[in-house]
Write a structure and sequence with these properties.
heterodimer; A: alpha/beta; Rossmann fold; 2 domains; 10 helices; B: alpha+beta; Heat Shock Protein 90; two-stranded antiparallel ribbon; 9% strand; flat; protein dimerization activity (chain B); EC 2.7.13.3 (chain B); transmembrane helix (chain B)
């Protein structure tokens, strides 16, 4: 897998390069700012970009904007955004095109290397990886009149784990329920969120997006 | 680096003497300015008398408004002088009265106008006399001191002292005159701060707003300073948040990432583990250093440990420009101390960066319930306060305490930063 890294803190950038190279990934460029990221994507056409949210010049959301811009230019690019804190509006912005291939994780998750690599693979393969922290934040902000409110507690649980990007088998394992039960819950979630039948992975992304948007309002 | 506490007694006495002379020179400058304002006041009074006479004929009534305007301008001039000296006197005037009748009403009843007029009358006398005395003392001193150089060049009997009362005709007389000149100048140095205080008494008495009608402006002022306090607070919080996020937190994330890498390398490539662990340690250390500097910027631990005196001495010891510190104030609220500390830190930084000074002095005194902080250097002056500079930040901090920051920095020096922080309720 060919990776571009954008992180303005030199020490952390080096650390990320060291880690990913150690895992046998091909880090084709490691840059320190949003513009350099766009140039690097243009030049190297990586499979995935790992991007820090706060970068120069204003250290607010440059990373998100750069990631969105890179995606507009290259829709096939997968983006994994790393952030020191979670802000669910960032996640919504990233997922807005509904195409998946997006991850949004707290920076420290990188330290759990196995899980992080899984998330990286999943996003590169077209899925999502939304940090559990974002999901938790969403539930604490749900409003009664949202479609989300129609979900049963179990269905919510399934949806939040789905938002993290886990597949059916993994969800079943995490929640200690059978594959069949997971299947049933997911069908209910799709129905309650009024998602038309179609490509299953598209619907999964759409469900997560719906979920994020619900919290945005 | 020089430590002020070990600097020799000799140099500190010299520096002390030098700063006394410099202060006297500054006082003298303001005394002369005050004399000028007194002359203006006398002029305005003369015009007022003419206007009053013309009122008898009727024409003068048309001039009343212009007259009041003139009084205000002179009073404003004095207020500017008072502010420059360090008495924050401000007057929010209402619109000047329109028409002769309204002008007359103002003179008869408006407390602000009446206070202005009271000041004008008293200051014309006090400002003039005190200013004249100060100028006379200096003139006497200079004349007497230089007498040996010129008395034999002028016609006999014209080398006189004290406005012509004493004539010098012999060399011994000239030398005595010179000795007297020294005494005059010592007197000038000793008296000019006192005279300046005397000259500003009437202004300080009459030129601030009438305490009875001042509540609304005071409320407006408090609202503004409260907003400034909140602003300063928000800015400070943002700065701390930024420092924590982009500094310490990133370093800790690095530690977590590298720890993960080390764990993985144990399985894949054990030789690299030691190298990665080394980086883990470096990361942890720099995170700690980052945290320390953030903490120090919130409330310097040295301030808590050794009080303002000790903290400022420590600052002075770190200053590249040798600095002496004198603190005569006792303990004040810790937030005031912190502001004073950061003001001095900023002052000394500016001295080192811009002033070209060879020496700086820091003085912290208590005047009533106001903490006065003064940072003075012997550099080339010409400093300006720009928005966004460190000084602007200090000003915001001071305003949050209802305090003031003044910078006097004429080209040629010296530069004096003065921060006044009320410590009362």
């Amino acid at each position: 897998m060919r990776v571009v890294i954008a992180e303005d803190d030199a020490l952390l950038r080096e650390g990320l390069v060291l880690l990913l190279q150690g895992e046998g990934l091909d880090v084709v460029a490691a840059v320190g700012g949003p513009e350099e990221l766009l140039l690097a994507v243009e030049e190297h056409r990586p499979d995935i970009a790992v991007v820090d949210v706060r970068m120069p010049p204003t250290h607010t959301d440059e990373g998100i904007r750069a990631a969105v811009a890179a995606r507009r230019a290259h829709p096939e690019l997968a983006v994994l955004v790393l952030s020191a804190y979670v802000e669910q509006s960032f996640a919504t912005e990233l997922l807005a095109d509904g195409a998946g291939r997006v991850g949004y994780l707290l920076k420290e998750r990188v330290g759990r290397v196995a899980t992080f690599l899984e998330a990286l693979q999943r996003v590169a393969a077209g899925g999502t990886a939304i940090d559990p922290e974002v999901v938790a934040q969403l539930f604490s902000r749900q409003r009664a009149n949202d479609r989300i409110a129609l979900l049963s507690p179990r269905e919510r649980e399934v949806l939040s784990v789905m938002a993290e990007g886990l597949g059916n088998a993994a969800i079943a394992k995490r929640l200690f329920i059978t594959d069949n039960a997971v299947h049933k819950h997911i069908r209910n979630v799709f129905a309650k969120l009024a998602l038309e039948p179609g490509d299953d992975s598209d619907r999964r992304v759409a469900a997560v997006l719906r979920f994020l948007e619900a919290a945005d309002r | 680096m020089s430590n002020p506490s070990v600097s020799t007694e000799h140099t500190s006495v010299l520096a002390e003497g030098w700063s006394v002379v410099r202060r006297a020179a500054i006082a003298l400058k303001w005394l002369v300015a005050g004399f000028g304002i007194a002359l203006l006041a006398i002029g305005v009074i003369a015009l007022a008398v003419v206007t009053a006479l013309l009122c008898v004929v009727g024409v003068g009534l048309l001039l009343l408004r212009a007259m009041l305007d003139l009084v205000r301008r002179v009073a404003e001039l004095e207020r500017r002088r008072l502010r420059a000296i360090g008495h924050p006197v401000r007057m929010p005037y209402a619109e000047p009265p329109r028409g002769a009748r309204a002008a007359w009403q103002a003179i008869a009843h408006d407390p602000t106008t009446r206070r202005d007029l009271s000041w004008l009358a008293t200051y014309a006398v006090v400002g003039f006399v005190v200013g004249a005395v100060a100028i006379q003392i200096v003139a006497n001193g200079v004349q007497a001191l230089t007498l040996p150089a010129w008395w034999h060049l002028v016609p006999r009997g014209e080398a006189t002292l004290v406005n012509g009362f004493v004539a010098v005709t012999t060399w011994p007389g000239a030398w005595v005159a010179m000795a007297m000149g020294v005494i005059w100048l010592v007197l000038a140095v000793a008296l000019s701060p006192v005279l300046l205080r005397a000259q500003t008494v009437t202004g300080r008495r009459w030129l601030p707003p009438d305490p009875a009608i001042d509540w609304s402006t005071r409320v407006a002022e408090l609202t503004a300073t409260r907003a400034a306090a909140l602003d300063a607070h928000a800015l400070e919080l943002r700065r701390i948040e930024r420092a924590l996020h982009d500094g310490a937190q990133n370093k800790l994330v690095t530690v977590a990432v590298l720890a993960g890498a080390a764990q993985r390398s144990l399985e894949n490539d054990p030789q690299r583990t030691a190298e990665i662990l080394e980086r883990v340690q470096t990361g942890a250390e720099s995170a700690l250093a980052e945290l320390r500097s953030v903490v120090r910027s919130i409330l310097p631990p040295v301030l808590e440990k050794s009080g303002l005196d000790g903290a400022l001495s420590a600052l002075a010891a770190q200053s590249p420009v040798p600095a002496t510190v004198r603190v005569t104030a006792g303990r004040v609220p810790v937030s005031v101390e912190a502001t004073a500390y950061f003001a001095v830190a900023e002052g000394l930084t500016n001295v080192a960066r811009h002033s070209g000074a060879t020496h700086a002095s820091v003085e912290v005194t208590m005047r009533g319930d106001v903490l006065q902080v003064r940072v003075e250097d012997d550099g080339h002056g010409g400093a300006r306060v720009r928005d966004g500079s460190g000084l602007a930040g200090i000003t915001r901090r001071a305003e949050a305490h209802d305090g003031t920051v003044t910078v006097s920095s004429p080209v040629g020096g010296p530069t004096i930063l003065e921060v006044r922080l009320p410590c009362g309720s």
